[in-house]
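Standup notes
- DV: blocked on the single-chain target, sequence here:
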Amino acid sequence: MSSGRSDQTNGYNVAMEPDIDDLVRLHQLVRHRRAFTVLEFGIGNSTLVIADALAKNADDFAASDAEVELLPADAFRVFSVDASEAWLATAVARIPNGLQAPGVAAHSEVHTGTFNGQLCHFYDRVPNVVPDFIYLDGPD
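- DV (later): unblocked, structure below
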């Protein structure tokens, strides 16, 4: 799945085309599950799609008669983590004024290690939120 971010291939910055079907599915998932808070690993076009879906969820919530005693402090925000500072700045700058900016667009060093005998990546810095939807994105 590709959100449209760029990737380093042979030392060159190569733009990846967004996967429209994947982005539509992502929007539908956030809307259908009525997500409040999203944690995303890998910022890009997916961030715009998630922000739009959350804005629509916020509108639906405001128009409903639902009585909620405790609404999350970070309701209707997407928190994005990425290993590239340059890509973070580019992606955040592309968010239109009409959409709420990500709650956090955090840079994090990533290192490789093992967990339960499986090779994996670890982010050193992750926002301190309790998401009800987590999206793992990035180049294949």
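- Follow-up: Helices lie at 20-32, 45-63, 85-93.
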